[in-house]
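Curious: can you check?
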Amino acid sequence: MPRPGARALLRAEVVRSLRFSGLVWLAEADGVPSGMAACAQASPAPGDSIHGRLLPGRWGYVDTLSVAPAARGGGIGRALMAVAHRELVRPGTRGTFLFYHPANPLSPVFWHRQGYRPLWTMWIRRPAWS
């Protein structure tokens, strides 16, 4: 689903991630931004969305991966995730996790190729006019 204001949302995501985790990678082609990955470290705690879904301990969290439409299919997402995985999976880290929309025609294919499999599925219903 295209998001109105996607550029502003991605900019805010980068700023937020730099402030809180510092785990942000940007890709560029010929000086033009072409992709970004924003990640964090997370540990399940009572009351959060991963408590009871992941084993206790430290996990790498892939928050946002975005590649410009014109740059898709060229390996930028794969390269960003190679760097992210290398940085996220350190000694003492159990693994990595992420949330993605299974109905998105691009997400499941990409994430399965990265080795991810669904642990649980949540469906959200929205009014058609939103």
Summary: Strands lie at 23-29, 32-42, 58-67, 93-98. The chain has a mean pLDDT of 87. The chain has one domain: 6-113.
